[in-house]
Amino acid sequence: MQLAVNEGSLLNQTGLLTRFAGRFFRELFRPGFEWAELLRQCFAVGYQSLLVSVTGFIMGLVITMRLRPTMVQFGAEAWIPTMVGITIIREMGPIITGLMVAGKVSSNIGAELGSMRVTEQIDAMEVSGTNPFKYLVVTRVVATTLMVPVLSILADAISLSGAYLGVRLHGDTSLPLFINDVLNKLTLAAVAESLVKCVCFGFAIGLVGCYKGYYATEGTEGVGRAANSAVVVASLIVFVLDLLTVQLSTILGIDN
């Protein structure tokens, strides 16, 4: 039965989204996974998010250029690679990747599933005996969950290359020394925290996009509303998850 999800209180929407997540996990572990569709969705998510590479390079370069005057003022210029590395890998890389994927992929998923809903393609799949939820929703959520960490690693590497360029513009630091300074204060726990954060971002982005699109109503207007709402909600959840992750890492002593 189709549910109207475009209207309602925040509490009601949270409950519906939670129930949608519960259905996802039930369908995920049932036999008959759509591997071919999963691979296609992984490629689609990665291809749609290639702009992360350009953004990451500029981000690393700008952070280095902004940070350098202050570090020079305090006589701590040698700490620039370490500071930039921690900033990019632990925070900026995951959050920028999450926001870009939320803006591009989540809206595309919402629009795609929304159009399928309003044109009754999903209803036709149900009538024909196909499980549209497993084929359309599970594969997309798993794809975003897997690909956001991969995209974040790519963004981190490209951002650090931009940071290295920023360091080289004002000095003669070698690449091995730069890499050593970046990894010097970076612990395995901090890297694990970043990856876990990305997994949570990817899951939330895919889930919200599928939820908004799967239950879209009111024709083409509803499709546009589902796509826009998916971007806003997914981006907000990314920030909330980031805040919760930072608080949890502080409690566990990862920041120490």
Secondary structure topology:
Elements: H1 10-28, H2 35-48, H3 51-73, H4 80-118, H5 121-127, H6 132-168, H7 175-184, H8 188-214, H9 219-252
Helix pairs in contact: 1-6, 2-6, 3-4, 3-6, 4-6, 4-7, 4-8, 4-9, 6-8, 8-9
Output the structural class. mainly alpha
Shape: elongated
> How many extended strands?
0
Largest sheet: none
What percent strand?
Answer: under 5%
Helix content: over 70%
Would you tell me the overall average pLDDT?
Answer: 87
Q: Whole-Å distance between the termini? A: 50 Å
| Estimated radius of gyration | 21 Å
What is the H-and-E element order? HHHHHHHHH
Number of domains: 1
Low-confidence stretches: 1-7
Assembly state (oligomeric): single chain
The helix tally amounts to 9
In a few lines, what is going on in this structure?
By secondary structure, the protein is mainly α. The protein is built from nine helices and no strands. α4 (80-118) packs antiparallel against α9.
